Amino acid sequence: MIKKYQFITITILLFIGLNNFAQKKYEATWESLDSRPIPNWFEGAKFGIFIHWGPYSVPAYTPKGTYSEWYQYWLQSKSLFGNGKFKGDEVVNYHEATYGEDFSYYDFGENFKADLFDPVEWATLFEKAGAKYIVLTSKHHDGYTLWPNKQANDRGFAWNSMEVGSKRDLVGELSTAVKNTNVKMGLYYSLYEWYHPWWKNDRERFVDEHFLPQIKDLVTKYNPDVLWADGEWDMEDSKWKSKDFLAWLFNESQVKNSIVINDRWGKGIRKKHGGYFTTEYEAEAPEFTRPWEECRGMGFSFGYNQNEDAQDYNSPKALVLMLTNVVSAGGNLLLDIGPDSRGNIPPIMQERLLQIGEWLETNGEAIYGTKSWKSSFQWSKGEQNYKPKQHYLGGDFILKQTVDPEPGYAVKELFFTQNEDAYFAIAPKWPEEEMVINDFELADNATVTLLATGEVLKSKQMGKNVHISMPVYNPNNMKSTDAYAYAFKITKE
């Protein structure tokens, strides 16, 4: 029996220990900052929606295979890069023919009206899509802020959504709407700005008087769940003073215990330091030591590009297989949409989100809150990892790796995920009479269920492999969206 004074002593020690843990101070070093745990919800979220929206949504134009949100840079630098061969003057020629030589990029600000923007409708769509978080571009590389901010105007003229264009606090309105759902609210923020006079001529002043107070204002006003940095690549983290900012974020801000950050905080920092690691228009990541996220658009552009046609958008099957591919490798997919300048989300983008959401409604158990198996995929015979030679990897790569292979190339027959209770095998196409899982052992009382119908399937261990008998395929027993990929649940007991 513990004596009274011993009990009191233990209680005090426990209190001190817990209090010290809760008040841990993070130093402005990567060793200390990297030791901060990433909030648990993020790694289990699996599916997020990226939103690129700003004055570039007014012209909404670049050649196919390039980023429309880079319109200002293509225009003023007279250059262009992406998928394809370009002379470099394509955007300049389009701009002058459409708006005239004297029309500045900054003139687009007044035309960024967002007059049809309904934040509640957006938030409802995101929830129906099955997204667990969103990330909105609060400021892209052009420097225009989607919230009222005085630093946005220090270039000599007003350059924020409250004063120019919509006359609305777009970040604030969407944050309020999203936080009334079960979806987490994230904000993208570009560290640098292409043509800010201080960035061009006095970078120390840009950091001290523009970047640092501006990003702190963003965090303080809106308490985001995710802070997604970008535009870091031209300068080392020591010059950005990003470690000092992150120490403030983790020690003093209102979101110090809840916020999730990415890895874009200085030249050479990606996939080394920060929060979760990011990839962009890649296939699947190698084995990372931290949670990771792949971001890409439904087509090639992040911002709305009126030059993209229906065939430039990935099919819903390709998008579901992309999601499955990333999740089976332990990552999240951040899939981008680009609203137009009036605040409409293009119907084809809405349709794709709803199709993904309908598939997740049935099969989400195999996605949300899962982690990788010992193997992420089961390959057929042949050469693996087909990848076309593209600057930005198009979405058709996943179809070539699954249902439409090039001659001689292998396909991913199955994707694998697991949670505490079950393993999941996800097939890109309907297995014929049986499905074989190689090098896998069933538990004695394991059951195998097809999530699309709830049917329990017959299974048996044959050597090192498991053979699962397939039912007669009947599309009337399933939703049409279930055909994007078929998920099988295998209990662990």
Automatic annotation (TrEMBL):
SMART domains: Alpha_L_fucos
Domain of life assignment: Bacteria
Keywords from the UniProt entry: Glycosidase, Hydrolase, Signal
InterPro entries assigned: FUC_metazoa-typ, Fucosidase_C, GH, Glyco_hydro_29, Glyco_hydro_29_N, Glyco_hydro_b
EC number: 3.2.1.51
Segments forming domain Alpha-L-fucosidase C-terminal: 412-491
Family per record: Belongs to the glycosyl hydrolase 29 family.
Function as written in the Swiss-Prot or TrEMBL entry: Alpha-L-fucosidase is responsible for hydrolyzing the alpha-1,6-linked fucose joined to the reducing-end N-acetylglucosamine of the carbohydrate moieties of glycoproteins.
PANTHER family the UniProt entry points to: ALPHA-L-FUCOSIDASE (PTHR10030), ALPHA-L-FUCOSIDASE-RELATED (PTHR10030:SF37)
Protein name, UniProt field: alpha-L-fucosidase
UniProt organism field: Urechidicola vernalis
Native organism taxonomy: Bacteria, Pseudomonadati, Bacteroidota, Flavobacteriia, Flavobacteriales
